[in-house]
Write a structure and sequence with these properties.
Belongs to the inositol monophosphatase superfamily. With 259 residues, the chain is an alpha+beta fold. It has 2 domains: 137 residues, Fructose-1,6-Bisphosphatase, Chain A, domain 1 (2-Layer Sandwich), CATH 3.30.540.10; 109 residues, D-Maltodextrin-Binding Protein, domain 2 (3-Layer(aba) Sandwich). It has an 8-stranded mixed beta sheet with strand order 4-3-5-6-7-8-9-10, with helices on both faces. It has a 5-stranded mixed beta sheet with strand order 12-11-13-15-14, sandwiched between helices. The longest helix has 21 residues. It is globular. The N and C termini lie far apart (38 Å).
Length: 259
């Protein structure tokens, strides 16, 4: 497919950052790690990847602003465009040598998400999409799964571990859902969970308490793969509330009702 100049920039940036993460992943035991908060670690690899992404995207689009996990908000001269960047989604997986992690980059134009790239540098799987142009992955064009019954659906979720809030609510939800679904998965990288929904690997995904960089690119992919994305009150306030639910129109509606 023909790609826009912005998509070429995004892909080149994540692939360069991915090479650095791949090298560090091979030496994960030697990384110096500092504790950033309960159950949330930041490593040298994370910071290095973010630096690469910041430099590459800034050089290609000097005026664009940023919303980044480590640097936070970086204002740009062009107030209509903003990169939303997670340099390493799945840091805990990375530090434990689990190869389920991703770099996630989205482009926001005048408040609308218009492009997204999610890249797992360890498995070398790249998922990308642009508004109105479809979403693509390792097997070509992405399509959400076609199942229309929760009883046949495999869902992905996030779980509030450690000191994170919402554990009682999560346990209530899963107790209600488990007898009525085909399976539940918790892999620890929300961006990849959303990419897998877009690719039809998961039928749906939900989680509370996410940051914008965890889901911005994935929202683009799911929409472009024919799926629906909302917050848990069925509004388009995901980036503000931090809550997200994604799936095809049938499973999205059924899961929304259950939750």
């Amino acid at each position: 497919m023909a790609q826009s100049p912005a998509m070429n920039v995004m892909r080149a940036a994540v692939e360069k950052a991915g090479r650095a993460l791949r090298r560090d992943f091979g030496e994960v035991e030697n990384l110096q790690v500092s504790k950033k908060g309960p159950g949330d670690f930041v490593s040298q690899a994370d910071l290095k990847a973010e630096k690469i992404l910041f430099e590459e995207l800034s050089e290609a689009r000097p005026g664009y602003g940023f919303l980044m996990e480590e640097r936070g908000v970086v204002e740009g001269a062009d107030a209509t465009h903003r990169w939303i960047v997670d340099p390493l989604d799945g840091t805990t997986n990375f530090l434990h040598g689990i190869p389920h992690l991703a770099i996630s980059v989205a482009l926001e134009r005048e408040g609308t998400l218009v492009a997204g790239v999610i890249y797992n540098p360890i498995t070398d799987e790249l998922f990308f999409g642009e508004r109105g142009q479809g979403a693509y992955g390792p097997g070509g064009r992405l399509r959400v799964a076609g199942r229309d019954r929760l009883s046949e659906a495999v869902l992905a979720c996030g779980a509030p571990h450690g000191e994170r809030k919402g554990r009682a609510e999560f346990l209530t939800e899963t107790e209600k859902l488990l007898p009525n679904i085909a399976g539940l998965r918790r892999f620890g990288a929300a961006s990849l969970d959303l990419a897998f929904v877009a690719a039809g690997r998961f039928d749906a995904f939900w989680e509370r308490g996410l940051a914008a960089w965890d889901m911005a690119a994935g929202i683009v992919l799911v929409r472009e793969a024919g799926g629906l994305v909302s917050d848990l009150t069925n509004r388009q306030k995901m980036l503000e509330t931090g809550d997200v639910i994604a799936g095809n129109e049938f499973i999205h509606a059924a899961l929304l009702k259950e939750l």
